[in-house]
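Data availability (excerpt). The following record was deposited with the supplementary files.
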Amino acid sequence: MIQRETYAVAEIAGKQIILEPGKQVNVPKLKDYEEGNDYIADKILYLRNGDDVEIGEPYLEDKEIKTKILEHTRGKKITVFKKKRRKRYKIKRGHRQHYTVIEVEDFS
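Predicted structure:
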C-alpha cells in the first residue's frame, strides 16, 4: 500500500476523489467551469496531514482545497458489445467518457 504524507478525499461531481498537492487528477466533467479557472473543492470527507487525521461527518467544516482546471477531455474509447445467442441479436457500440483534468494547488 502506498503511504502518502498529505492527502484528502473529496467529493467532486458525485465521485470520491483522492487529492494530493501538486498532482493532476481526472474527475467527471465539470460543465460550469472553463479551462484555466479555479475550482474550490469544499466537500472534504477525509484529510490527512502527516500524523494528523480529520474525518468529516459527512464533510469537514471550514476546509477546502483550491484546484485549477487544466482541460476538458475525453477518456479512452471502450467497446460495448451485446449479444443474445440464437436470436440473431448483436449490437456493438463505443463510448468515451468526458473528464476534466484538475491540478491540486493548495490545501486550506
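Summary of structural features: Residues 6-107 form one domain.
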